[in-house]
Amino acid sequence: MENKFFYIIVVIVLIYFFYNNYSKSKKAIKMIENGAKVIDVRTSKEFNLGHFNGSVNIPLNIIENNIEKIKSFKKDIIVVCASGARSGKANSILKKNGIKSANGGSWSSLK
Question: Which residues contact 4 (CB under 8 A, 6 or more apart)?
Fold first, then answer.
C-alpha cells in the first residue's frame, strides 16, 4: 500500500511539473508574439551552448546591475533559464524594480 501511495504522489508531482511548464511556455509565447523581450539569465557559457533566437543574455548574478538597461528596452520581459528556478528569482527582482515581466521557465520550451 505504501508503494502505491508513493507512486501516486510521484505521478501528481510530474503532472503538476509538466502542466506548470506548459502554461509558463504558453503565456511566454503569447507575450513574445506581442513584442516582449526574452532575457536568458543563465551563465554566458550556458547561453553560448544554445539559446532562444533573439534573446539577450544577462546572467542572474548581474541582473540587478542591469535594471536601467532592461528598462531601456521599453518592452515586457520574459525571463528564462535552464529549468525555471533562476528565471523565477530574476522575475522577482524585475518586478521589485517596477518592470513588467514573466517567468518563461526553460528557454528550450520556447522553441
Answer: none
Closest CA to 37 of 109, 106, 102, 111: 102
pLDDT tens sequence across 37-96: 999 999 999 999 999 999 999 999 999 999 999 999 999 999 999 988 999 999 999 999
Cα separation, 70 vs 51, in Å, equals 18
Rounded-to-integer distance, Cα 61 and Cα 28, Å: 22
Q: What are the two backbone dihedrals, phi and then psi, of residue 36, each rounded to the nearest 5 degrees?
A: -65, 155
Q: Which residues pair with 102 in a beta bridge?
A: 78
- What count of other Cβ atoms lies within 10 Å of the Cβ of residue 5? 9
Please give the CATH architecture assigned to the domain spanning 2-110.
3-Layer(aba) Sandwich (3.40)
Report the chain's C-alpha Rg in angstroms: 16
